[in-house]
Amino acid sequence: MGNPSFDVIIAGAGIVGAACAAELAAAGLEVAVLESDMVGSGATAAGMGHIVVMDDSEAQFALGRYSLNLWHELSERLPASCEYQVCGTLWVAADEDEMEEARRKGRYYSRHQIESEILDPQALADAEPALRPGMAGALRIPGESVLYPPAAARFLIDQALQQGAQLWVGKPATELTGGRARLADGSSLAAGCTVNAAGCGALRITPQLVQWVRPRKGHLAITDRYPGLISHQLVELGYLKSAHASESDSVAFTLQPRPTGQLLIGSSRQFGPADSSVEAPLLGRMLRRACRYLPPLADLSVIRAWTGFRAATPDNLPLIGPCPGVDGLYLATGHEGLGITTSLGTAKLLADQILGRKSEIPAQPYLPSRMLKKETLNLARQPLRPETGSHRDTETQRSEGLSDSSLCTLRLGGKS
Ligand SMILES: Cc1cc2nc3c(=O)[nH]c(=O)nc-3n(C[C@H](O)[C@H](O)[C@H](O)COP(=O)(O)OP(=O)(O)OC[C@H]3O[C@@H](n4cnc5c(N)ncnc54)[C@H](O)[C@@H]3O)c2cc1C
Q1: What are the boundaries of each domain within the chain?
Q2: 47, 219, 327, 385: least buried by Cβ within 10 Å?
Q3: Distances (CA, A) of 138 to 121, 236, 243
Q4: Site to substitute for ligand 1 among 10, 23, 34, 37, most atoms within 8 A of C-beta
Q5: What is the per-residue pLDDT across 42-84, written as a single tens digit (0 to 9) for each?
């Protein structure tokens, strides 16, 4: 490929790298994207695609709300392949404690201009009749949406290419400095600056990330087509409780209706395993939990299950900005379970820093330099807050993007 020079070289064409490429190319910069596998692979291929605002911290909420608005603005231009739909989120409360959390969450969202509505048990049963009877209620966030992440990453890369960006697929970056990207084949490209947006793969390119980012494995499963069973993205409020177990394996109920009529079932969280194989005991726990919330699931066929790795930081906020100690290298990773949602906000914040623009929300909470503070790293010993739901879509496209997927066909309720 010779030795061309670019304003910015981005490693990784997952949804975060793709969004950064689109934003930087739209600003008139000469952008090159290096992707080791295929556009929208990695966690993006494995993720659920729930565009959701979480309020575990002010900073997490600010980036989520900013990004949700950006997705709304972009939605008119998204092609049908992105399967974007504003189905709303139902945070389902199983008991009065969880209902109290639903009310707290609702008050917080209202104070911050996000529409929400408390559903009592009857209203919840009317909204989602397939849920187990006897739930305490729910919080409904009508403006949240779902999409198909690999197609969204493809769309964003195409936007960048239309603005003159260049994409090299099958070209892993092995080293990024401020002025150069070194490739696995020994060649290198010169750049004004570089961006490490390689998800969990970022750790192999920028070794100091090993102290700050840990891969967190997650499982998802998808059913055959059963149109109309649910209409919202469902998430249990107990999700927050189970995900607080930062070191132990946890599962929580999340369920997403896909336009195909399939249901995407999530999710699990594990630190430790590097192996991407589907783990039957954990998958079983996850599916049994889902059946407890939505009993009719027990009679449906799950046609595939797979795993992916979230890039988790100690404070559960992404790393967006200059990499300490390496002039000209920027980081855009560490999005854990919210990177589909926050990709667009990340791209804006990163481009603002590279271009010296004023940001719409403060960039400081996401700067990688916070990791140099002992307090931030000490958070690793405290419970991590949860992510969002998860899901996954039509077999063909889905299977292409998976880092490792295992096919399985099972009847949740034991019918074969
Ligand atoms: C089970 C599960 C459910 C999830 N559900 C949701 C959800 O509902 N909503 C939500 O917002 N988020 C969700 N997430 C999180 C979300 O998927 C991630 O945060 C997001 O995809 C991260 O995107 P990324 O571009 O940073 O990383 P990735 O998607 O991992 O992309 C990194 C890219 O870099 C490439 N790469 C790696 N190494 C190199 C290299 N050396 N050189 C060049 N390229 C390289 C990879 O091939 C890959 O394409 C979920 C994640 C999981 C695992």
Answers
A1: 5-48+149-212+314-381, 86-144+214-312+386-411
A2: 327
A3: 8, 9, 19
A4: 37
A5: 999 999 999 999 999 999 999 999 999 999 999 999 999 999 9
| 105 in Cβ contact with 115 (< 8 Å) | no
Instruction: Tell me if the pTM is above 0.90.
Output: yes
Class of domain 86-144+214-312+386-411: alpha beta
Q: Are 181 and 193 in contact (CB under 8 A)?
A: no
pLDDT digits (tens, 9 = 90+) for 233-282: 999 998 766 555 566 889 999 999 999 999 999 999 999 888 999 999 99
Rounded to the nearest angstrom, the distance between the alpha carbon of 399 and the centre of ligand 1 is: 15
Q: Is the CB of 218 under 6 A from ligand 1?
A: yes
Task: Please tell me whether residue 235 adopts helix, strand or coil conformation.
Answer: strand
Q: Domain 5-48+149-212+314-381 adopts which CATH fold?
A: FAD/NAD(P)-binding domain (3.50.50)
Helix (H, G, I), strand (E, B) or coil at 300: coil
* Residues belonging to the chain: 416
Q: Which two tokens stand for residue 100?
A: 């109290």
- Residues facing residue 331 across a β-bridge: 196, 321
Please tell me what DSSP assigns to residue 206: S
Alpha helices of 76-148 — where are they, by DSSP H?
96-111, 121-127
